[in-house]
Amino acid sequence: MVTTESVTIKVPVGMSKYLVTMNPETELTRNALLLYPYILNQTISHGRAAEILGIRKSELIDLYDKLGYSYFDMTMDDLDDELNTFRELKKKEAAV
User: Fold this and answer.
1) pLDDT of residue 25
2) Among the four residues 44, 62, 82, 84, which has the most C-beta atoms within 10 Å?
3) Range(s) of the domain holding residue 45
4) pTM above 0.85?
5) Per its UniProt entry, which superkingdom is the organism in (predicted)?
6) Is residue 52 a contact partner of residue 35, using CB atoms and an 8 Å limit?
7) In terms of DSSP H, where are the helices of the chain?
């Protein structure tokens, strides 16, 4: 069980009604979304965020994936380019 505490944040008036105590799954999603900007700017890792939330890293990655936030930030084209570069370097290395 994760130890929790209450904090006060300023939000637009229309938003407050959505932040009342929710079911545990909704609260976990909300809290994960609050941490996401810190993962994105590399202040914390996915592992640290998962630790803060009291879940496994794989669970957090799955949660973000369901929300449309990919763990990997490469497109397939980027990945293909990286693989081609790797293959070319391996060829050059083998030739030496």
Assistant:
1) 92
2) 44
3) 22-95
4) no
5) Bacteria
6) yes
7) 24-40, 46-53, 57-66, 76-95
